[in-house]
């Protein structure tokens, strides 16, 4: 029986955690500072449409996909041209059904400057850390080595979800000790009666049981608030877990001569970065590159004009100090 349980557990994780999505992002920067953002994604339809890595949406995007077909592999592509100085969305998620603060955060800054003798193009992109080890260190340990899951990693996630939700709920000073004690007793019971496999497969039932136990001593307003917060932090944990298997490959082409970059590799005029959701579990993933065009002839002409201007001003000042002969004759 134990062998059968382990086999089902392994099969479950093969199905859940190997259905990764590959994102291929191309950014082409043009001399005047505008850029094309081209986002292609391939994988399981459900994984493409979930919340871990929201895909671009909206009428201002050129979008193609095969989501309406019956296919073994689904593809998505969105393209948009951004003008110089146009804001890039911090997230592609356009709904209030999930709190923005738990979604994948990306900060894009693509700047162009023209200083006459030099033009500069700067790319700075940050995919923000999930700060996962601060919340559920055993979950992080599992995500980094899924072949050797630590004991109680699912319980570690459950504990954070409920403790964090309760800490943000306005339960009232007089009820706080009793409610915290109820939560502690319930979590101890769950830890004793469930292992990773059984807790994973019964997670929804166990979560609802915990909500009932906590809410029985709360006023209606606090009960609703606590339930919403449990859902919020459960979604946050699921997004972090789902992201771990996503692969992101970002390439960019910039005008001018490359001055600096932290790219993984370069071929021709194309820079490449490749990373996964594991890379942002605890740290920001930062992409940066700078290119420039230095106009030597402009500098020379600028130098000549500057010297001529200085000479003109000098002669003018000298001329002002020379006495006027007409005035002297009088």
List strands and helices in order, with pairings:
Blueprint: H1 2-17, E1 22-29, E2 35-43, H2 45-49, E3 62-65, E4 74-82, E5 106-114, E6 118-127, H3 132-135, H4 137-144, H5 153-167, H6 176-193, H7 196-201, H8 203-215, H9 220-243, E7 247-253, E8 257-261, E9 265-267, E10 270-276, E11 285-294, H10 296-321, H11 325-329
Parallel strand pairs: 1-7
Antiparallel strand pairs: 1-2, 2-4, 3-4, 5-6, 6-11, 7-10, 8-11, 9-10
Helix pairs in contact: 4-5, 5-6, 5-9, 6-8
Helix content: 40-55%
Number of helices: 11
Structural class: alpha+beta
Amount of beta strand: 15-25%
Radius of gyration: 30 Å
SSE order, as H and E?
HEEHEEEEHHHHHHHEEEEEHH
Overall pLDDT, averaged? 88
Shape: elongated
Number of strands: 11
Instruction: Please state how the strands of the largest beta sheet are arranged side by side.
Output: 3-4-2-1-7-10-9
Structural description of this entry:
The chain has 330 residues and is of the alpha+beta class. It is 42% helix and 25% strand. The protein has eleven helices and eleven strands. It folds into three domains: 21-131 and 245-294, Immunoglobulin-like; 133-241, no CATH class; 296-329. It has helices at 2-17, 45-49, 132-135, 137-144, 153-167, 176-193, 196-201, 203-215, 220-243, 296-321, 325-329; strands at residues 22-29, 35-43, 62-65, 74-82, 106-114, 118-127, 247-253, 257-261, 265-267, 270-276, 285-294. The protein is elongated. The chain starts with a helix and ends with a helix. The chain has a seven-stranded mixed β-sheet. It has a four-stranded antiparallel β-sheet with strand order 5-6-11-8, with no helix packed on it.
């Amino acid at each position: 029986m134990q062998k059968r349980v382990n086999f089902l557990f392994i099969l479950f994780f093969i199905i859940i955690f190997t259905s990764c999505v590959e994102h291929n992002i191309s950014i082409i920067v043009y001399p005047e500072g505008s850029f094309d953002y081209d986002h292609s994604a391939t994988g399981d339809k459900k994984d493409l449409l979930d919340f871990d890595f929201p895909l671009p949406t909206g009428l201002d995007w050129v979008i193609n996909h095969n989501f309406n077909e019956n296919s073994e592999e689904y593809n998505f592509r969105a393209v948009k041209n951004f003008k110089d100085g146009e804001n890039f969305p911090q997230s592609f998620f356009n709904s209030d059904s999930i709190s923005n603060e738990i979604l994948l955060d990306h900060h894009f800054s693509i700047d162009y400057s023209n200083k006459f003798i030099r033009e500069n193009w700067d790319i700075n992109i940050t995919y923000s850390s999930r700060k996962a080890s601060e919340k559920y260190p055993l979950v992080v340990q599992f995500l980094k080595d899924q072949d050797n899951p630590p004991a109680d990693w699912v319980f570690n996630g459950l504990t954070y979800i409920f403790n964090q939700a309760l800490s943000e709920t306005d339960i009232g000073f007089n009820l706080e000790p009793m409610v915290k004690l109820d939560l502690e007793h319930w979590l101890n019971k769950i830890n004793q009666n469930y292992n990773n496999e059984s807790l994973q497969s019964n997670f929804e039932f166990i979560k609802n049981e915990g909500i009932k136990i906590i809410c029985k001593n709360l006023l209606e307003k606090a009960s609703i608030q606590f339930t919403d917060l449990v859902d919020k932090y459960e979604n946050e944990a699921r997004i972090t877990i789902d992201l771990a298997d996503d692969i992101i490959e970002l390439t960019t082409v910039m005008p001018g001569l490359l001055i600096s970059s932290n790219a993984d590799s370069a071929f021709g005029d194309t820079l490449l970065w490749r990373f996964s959701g594991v890379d942002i579990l605890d740290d920001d993933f930062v992409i940066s590159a700078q290119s420039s065009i230095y106009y030597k002839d402009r500098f020379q002409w600028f130098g000549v004009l500057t010297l001529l201007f200085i000479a003109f001003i000098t002669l003018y000042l000298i001329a002002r100090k020379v006495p006027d002969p007409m005035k002297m004759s009088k």
